[in-house]
Amino acid sequence: MTETKKPIVNPAELELEHWQEGTFFESRDVSFGAELGLTNLGVGYGEVPPGKSGCPFHNHHIEEELFVILSGQGEYRFGPNRYPVKPGDVLGAPSGGPETAHNLINTGTEPLKYLSISTNAKAEIVEYPDSGKFLAQSRAVAGGKPVFRFIGKRESEVDYWDGEPGI
Prior knowledge:
Elements: E1 17-21, E2 25-31, E3 41-48, E4 59-60, E5 65-71, E6 74-78, E7 81-85, E8 90-93, E9 102-106, E10 112-119, E11 123-128, E12 133-138, E13 141-142, E14 145-146, E15 149-153
Antiparallel strand pairs: 1-2, 2-3, 3-10, 4-11, 5-8, 5-10, 6-7, 6-9, 11-12, 12-15, 13-14
């Protein structure tokens, strides 16, 4: 059981991690569900600069996500559609295939600030329809590192019996 430090967290008081990949992906964010003692629910806070996205377009096969827009303007890319978002909007991202793929894009002139809430499955498969990648991972950790995490493409698929002794 995770020890609860305090049952209240204010995202404005948390230290955000800034990262950037290429010219389109950038965010300042933090996960803080563990700070609240939560083990089966992930909670995060993110700030995405204008013209950027905080993650690639993706869908989860097991986990579900929910986003609450706190400030700023953006676009929620969900499946084949795009929806404008504003403060107070609540966005759902159910598990499923590419029809539930999603990401948030800041289309405004100020940072897009939001809360993210998700289930924390023991294992997960995530697809990235734009790039054809997938992620397979276990939440199990040993020595501070994931026990299993693999990002690949379907082209690297092998036969079930490939490499087995006696085949």
